[in-house]
Amino acid sequence: MVSCWLAAPALAQEPKTGGVINAVIQPEPPGLMLAQVQNGPTQMVSGNIFEGLLRYSPKLDPLPELAESWSVSEDAKTYTFKLKKGVTWHDGKPFTAADVLFSIEMLKQTHARARTNLAQVDKVETPDQHTVVFTLKQPFGPFLGIFEVGSMPMVPKHLYDGTDWKTNPYNNAPIGTGPFMFKEWQKGSFIRLVKNPNYHEKGKPYLDEIYWQIIPDAAARSVAYETGKVDVLPGGSVENFDVPRLSKLKDTCVTGAGWEFFSPLAWLWLNNRQGPLADKRVRQAIMYAIDRDFAKDVIWNGLGKVATGPSASTIKFYTDDVKKYPYDPAKAKALLKEAGYKGEKIRMQPLAYGETWQRWGEAVKQNLQDAGMTIETIATDVAGGNQKIAEWDYDIAFTYLYQYGDPALGVGRNYISSNIAKGQVFNNVEGYSNPEIDKLFAEGAVATPDSKRKEIYEKAQKILVEDVPVAWMLELQFPTIMRCKVKNLITTGIGVNDGFKDAWLDK
Amino acid sequence: MLSFVAQRVLKGVIVLLAIVVLNFFLIRLAPGDPAVVMAGEAGASDQVFVKQLREKFGLDKPLPEQLFIYVKGVLTLDLGFSFRQQAPVAKLIGERLPATLLLTLTAFAISLTLGILFGTFAARFAGTILDTGITVFALIFYAMPIFWVALMGILLFSVTFDWLPSFGYETVGANLKGLAHAVDVAKHLIMPAMTLGLFFMATYTRMTRASMLEVKRLDFVKTARAKGLSDAVIQRRHVLRNALLPVVTLAGVHSGTLIGGAVITETVFAWPGIGRLMYDALLQRDYNLLLGVFVICSAMVLIFNLVTDLVYRLVDPRIEFAS
Known about the structure:
The complex is a heterodimer of chains A (507) and B (323).
Chain A: E1 20-25, H1 40-46, E2 54-56, E3 62-64, E4 67-72, E5 78-83, H2 97-110, H3 112-117, E6 121-128, E7 131-136, H4 157-160, E8 180-186, E9 190-195, E10 209-214, H5 218-226, E11 232-233, H6 243-247, E12 252-255, E13 265-270, H7 280-289, H8 292-299, E14 305-306, H9 329-338, E15 345-349, H10 355-370, E16 374-377, H11 382-390, E17 396-401, H12 407-410, H13 435-446, H14 450-467, E18 470-475, E19 480-483, E20 486-487, E21 504-505
Parallel strand pairs in A: 1-10, 15-16, 15-17
Antiparallel strand pairs in A: 2-3, 4-5, 5-7, 6-7, 8-9, 9-10, 11-19, 12-19, 13-17, 13-18, 14-18, 20-21
Chain B: H1 2-29, H2 34-41, H3 47-57, H4 63-75, E1 81-82, E2 87-88, H5 89-124, H6 129-143, H7 146-160, H8 178-216, H9 219-226, H10 231-268, H11 274-283, H12 287-315
Antiparallel strand pairs in B: 1-2
C-alpha cells in the first residue's frame, strides 16, 4: 500500500503561489464559530479562519502563532506572552491583548475543554496592548500545551463583546485572524474560504482558495477522489478499508502525520462498578482475550499501533515498561475461571462511527466469546451511546479519545476519582477509584521539572496497566490522502486542523 | 369546491398540530440530548457546562412548558432556533427545500410518466414478450435497494464512463450563469432523480397495467368499440382515464415515502436537500430543527394529498366534492 508515504514535509522546494484546493469535510460542521462549536469538522475548517497563540511541532514543542515569544518565571507560575504586532482581524481591526483577555472569558463559558484547562489560572493581565501575563494558582506542567487554535481560539472582542454570543450573526460568517477568510457556505454543498491578503506572515498563504466539499456518504467520498473532483481526503474521511485502494491510485500521496497532538487512543470502557467486570482478573482476561494485532492488521488495514496502556506513544512521558497483555485466549480463560465467571451476560456497545467500527465490534465480540464470555451487542447511534455511557448504563463500550499531548490534559481525566460524575461523558465513566492514582496525577500536573513529571507518570502508567480500569486497544492512525501536487499540507503536530497556511500546489 | 378546500386545509392544520405534539415527545424518547452531544464533541464535560447548555437551549424547563413554547411558535409560523447550527430553523430549511423539491418532483414526474407509459404498453400487449420485458424491468428497480442502485449508477456513469457527476447540486467553483447553470444542475440531477424515480416507477407500471386490464373488460369499452371508435382513442380516452384513479391514489400515498427515499438518495449523491438535514439533526438531537423538518414534510404530504383529491375530479368528473 506504500505508494508514496511522505517521510517528511517537502521543505526543500520553493513554494508556488496560487491555485485552489478541494478537500472533503465530513460530516458537515454544525457551525464554524470555533469558540462555540468544537466538533471535529469545525476544527478542520475553522483552523484556517481562526488562530491560537501557539501551534505545536510534531514533537509537540510550542511554535509561535499569534504570540511571537513567551517566557516562564522561575517559580513556573507566571507565563508572559508577547503578541505579534501588526496582526489584524479579517475586518481590518487590530488584534490586541484585549482580544486575548476577552477570548479567555468567553471560552470559559462556551468551550468545555478550555474551561478545564484554564481552571489553573489565577489571573490574566494585559500590561500593554501586546503583552499578556497569566498567573497560575500553582505550577502546571502542560500549561504551554493549551494554546493551539482548537483548544483556545482567539475571538474578536469588538464583534462579540456585549452581544448574545449564541445568536451573534458572525457565528455564521466568522471573522478571525487566520490565513483564510470565510467567503461562502452553501449548506449541504460546500464551504468556501479565500486567501487573506493581509495575513500577518508575509507571503502566506500560498493558495487562493479552499473548497470544503460536503459529501455525506463514505463510498461517494472515495469516488469523488478517484474521479478527481477532490484533492485532499483528510484523515478519517473515507472508510479504512478504502485506504489501501485509494493509496495505490496514480499521483496519490499518503501521510499519517499530523495527529501527534491529538494522539487518538481507542479503548473499551469497562464498567468497574458491577457484575463480573468489577473483578480485576476479568478485566485482565479481556485484555488477553482480544487479538489486537488482528484488529490492527485486518480491520484497520495495518494502520495504527497496538496500545500498551493509558498513554499513546506519541505523547509526553510515555513508557512501554509496563505489564504486557499479548493475545492469549488460554490465559484469559484461566483468569475468568479463577475469578469465578460463570457465563453471565455482558453487554457490549460498539461505536456508531461507520463500517470499520462495526466490524471491530464484531471481531471483539468473537474474541470474547472464544474466551468463554457471553456477549450481547447493543446497537445505538452516537448520541444515544454517549448517553448510556454517561448514565453508567453499560458493561463494555468502545470509544476513542484525544490525548492533547500531555497526560495532565488528556489522560488523567479518565482515571482520577474526582472525575466520577454521573451524566457526563468522557470523564471517569468506568468508575475506577484508586487513591494512589489520584495522588500521582495530582502531583504530575504541578511537578517541576519534567524529569520529575516523567517519574510520576511512568509510575501511574504501571499501576493502571496492572489494574486495567479500561481495555486499551489501539493508537489510531487516520491517514490523510492527497494528490502529490499538494505540498506542505501537514507541517505541525496538529495536522489538517491547523489550517492550510503552509500548503501550496506544485502545478 | 372552495369550501371543500377550506375544510381540507383546516383538517390539515389539525393533523399537523397532532404530528407536532406526537413528534415532540417521540424525539425526546431517544436517549441523549443536544447538550450531551455538544459536550461530547468538546472532548470534555463538566456538570456546570452541560447545565449551562441545557439552560441555553431551554431544555431545563418542564416538558409541557417546552411543548407550549414550541406549539405557540409554530402557530405564529416561527419554527424556532437551531442552537446546534446557530441559525433560525426556517432559514436552514429554506436553504435546503428548493433542492429537495427539485429532486422529489423530478423523480415523481419520471416515475409517473414512465410508469403510466410502460403500464399502458404492458396492458396493450398483455401476455406478449413486451409485457414480460416491461414487468421484469420494472421489478428489477423495485427490488433493488435505492442506495445500491445509486452506487452502481455512480460506478457506471461517473467512474467508468465519466458522463455524469457523482455528487452535488452544481459544479462547485464554476460560477455558471443562466442556461449553462441550468444544464449543469440538470446533469447533476439526472442520477439522483432517476435512482429515486425508477424505484417508484415499478409500482405505477404494475398498477396501470392491472387497472387497465380490468377496465378493458367493462361494458362501456365494448360500447365504445361498437360505436366504431379507433383502438387508440378507446385506450387513451376511455380505458386509461378510468384506469388512472388507483394510480392517482397511489401517487398521493407515495408522497411521504418519496421524501423518505430522498433521505437516502440525497446522502449518496450529496444532494443538498432537507433529507440530509433531517438525518444530521436526528443524530445530533437538534430538536427544533428536526421538528421543523417534520412540520414541513408533513405539510408537503398534506398539500400533496389535497392536490391528489383535486386531480381525482379532473380525471373523473363524476366525483363530487363532499362538503
